[in-house]
């Protein structure tokens, strides 16, 4: 349809009713304009991804778990609406507070931080976290978890989070209050795009100083990411914010096509919720259409929606919409399949005569 012609749906004269449902509200958004329309279209695209049984990656940047949004992610996992996750180490670290019953409270952003420091309170905008009762307590938990695990052998952050979920599931006071424990139960791989930039890695320092080494196999990680896309008939990403998680998920297309010399074309669908501007040249604000030039997406004209909004406002609406009208999907349990997916991609790569190099051992 030519966008330069005068056609399209009529803009309705919107009326609200106290009995309206979330579906009604999303339809209001979708029939309006600006970012309200984008949010409505994003919600409908997420529902389409679920209906088509697409393999759905959730990327999470920003401080979303300290405001309790891990509970939304947990529910989406339980319903089969998220198949794998890429997030920051901070979101994993702060999510674990809720599982262990460590205090996190609403505070204020209009405050004297010198006084907060004196009172041993850490601030994330208007969220308060106690220095000793929460952060120090969490640090002790993490140090105990990984003092013997993964030392002196290679590992991925998916394995790291899976073990963290297992330990919290078996030992935490409120294991049901963590999407990491839920991901462990449902075999949803959780990757940390930059683990060294978080308290998770900081807590490994005390063990490293005792000459224990931690060898993150980041190359195996990116192969696993690409292998998930490669095995998917349909694939999509729901991006909460931008940052490194966004690019880590999107670079699966260039890895397959540019590096491994394929022509698969990238993701079928991407939804992005961001407040970053595209004109500064940063990845967080880069348009999804631009990603086509890199082979990150299949089509620059279809299957993509960007919502310029605060994630804490838009994400609950998006999630509640699909929870209200989509049937629960059978979990794909990708974590247990990662070895098979890795080997499938490896085998197909070496079947190409152009890749005339000696094949090394398969993934352990």
Give the CATH H-level superfamily. Answer: Deoxyhypusine synthase
The helix tally amounts to 15
Uncertain runs: none
Rg over CA atoms: 22 Å
Structural class: alpha/beta
Largest sheet: 6 strands, parallel
CATH class: Alpha Beta
CATH architecture: 3-Layer(aba) Sandwich
| CATH topology group | Deoxyhypusine Synthase
Mean pLDDT: 95
The arrangement of helices and strands along the chain is HHEHEHEHEEHEHHEHHEHEHHEEHH
Strand ordering within the main sheet: 7-2-1-9-10-11
Shape, please?
Answer: globular
Helix content: 40-55%
Number of domains: 1
**Cα distance, first to last residue?**
50 Å
The number of E-state strands comes to 11
Tell me the layout of helices and strands.
Layout: H1 22-30, H2 34-51, E1 55-60, H3 70-78, E2 84-87, H4 89-99, E3 104-106, H5 113-118, E4 121-124, E5 127-130, H6 131-146, E6 154-155, H7 157-171, H8 179-185, E7 190-192, H9 199-202, H10 205-208, E8 215-216, H11 218-231, E9 235-240, H12 243-250, H13 252-259, E10 269-274, E11 304-308, H14 311-325, H15 338-351
Parallel strand pairs: 1-2, 1-9, 2-7, 6-8, 9-10, 10-11
Antiparallel strand pairs: 3-5, 4-5
Helix pairs in contact: 1-2, 2-14, 3-8, 7-8, 11-13, 11-15
Commentary on this structure:
There is one protein chain. α7 crosses α8 (about 180-185). Helices cover about 45% and strands about 10% of the residues. It has one domain (about 20-350): 3-Layer(aba) Sandwich (Deoxyhypusine Synthase), CATH 3.40.910.10. β4 and β5 (about 125-130) form a beta hairpin. It has helices at about 20-30, 35-50, 70-80, 90-100, 115-120, 130-145, 155-170, 180-185, 200, 205-210, 220-230, 245-250, 250-260, 310-325, 340-350; strands spanning about 55-60, 85, 105, 120-125, 125-130, 155, 190, 215, 235-240, 270-275, 305-310. It has 15 helices and 11 strands. The strands form 3 sheets. Strands 7-2-1-9-10-11 form a 6-stranded parallel beta sheet, with helices on both faces. By secondary structure, it is an alpha/beta fold. The longest helix is centred in the N-terminal third of the chain and has 18 residues, at about 35-50.
